[in-house]
Amino acid sequence: xxxxxxxxxxxxxxxxxxxxxxxxxxxxxxxxxxxxxxxxxxxxxxxxxxxxxxxxxxxxxxxxxxxxxxxxxxxxxxxxxxxxxxxxxxxxxxxxxxxxxxxxxxxxxxxxxxxxxxxxxxxxxxxxxxxxxxxxxxxxxxxxxxxxxxxxxxxxxxx
Length: 159
Prior knowledge:
This protein has helices at 55-69, 77-87, 96-116, 120-124, 144-151, and strands at residues 9-24, 29-42, 45-52. It is of the alpha+beta class and 159 residues long. The chain has a three-stranded antiparallel sheet.
C-alpha cells in the first residue's frame, strides 16, 4: 500500500467507435461515438477514467488538465479537482470542460483507490445496500426486437 504518491503521468487517448448504422436518441442522429480515455499513473500503478465526448475533450484533458495534476499529490483528489475547475475558468465549466474534468477526476479517484489497495466503493463508501438497475433501451433508432436483444440478461429476474 502506498500512502504518499505523486501523479507522475496523465495519458489521454480518443477512440472513434463507428456504429453499425446511424443511431439516434430522438433529438440527434450519429454514426460514431468517441470514447475519451484517461490513464493516471504513479510509480508502477496505472488507473483509468473515461467519458464519451468529442475529440476536443481529449485535447483539453491532455493540454490543460494534465498540466494541473501531474506532479501533485495523488491522494489529494479533491484539491486536484479544484485546480482543474480553476484552470477552465475562462473556458466555461460546462460542456467539454466538464466532460474532460470528469474523465481525469475518475482516473484520479481510481488511482487513489489502487494506491491504497482498496476498491472505489471502499474508498468512497456506499450510500445504499442495493441499487436497482435498468436498461433504458439504448437508441430510438432500434426497433423493439433489437432493444429487447440489447437488454436481454441485464437484470436478474426476481430482484
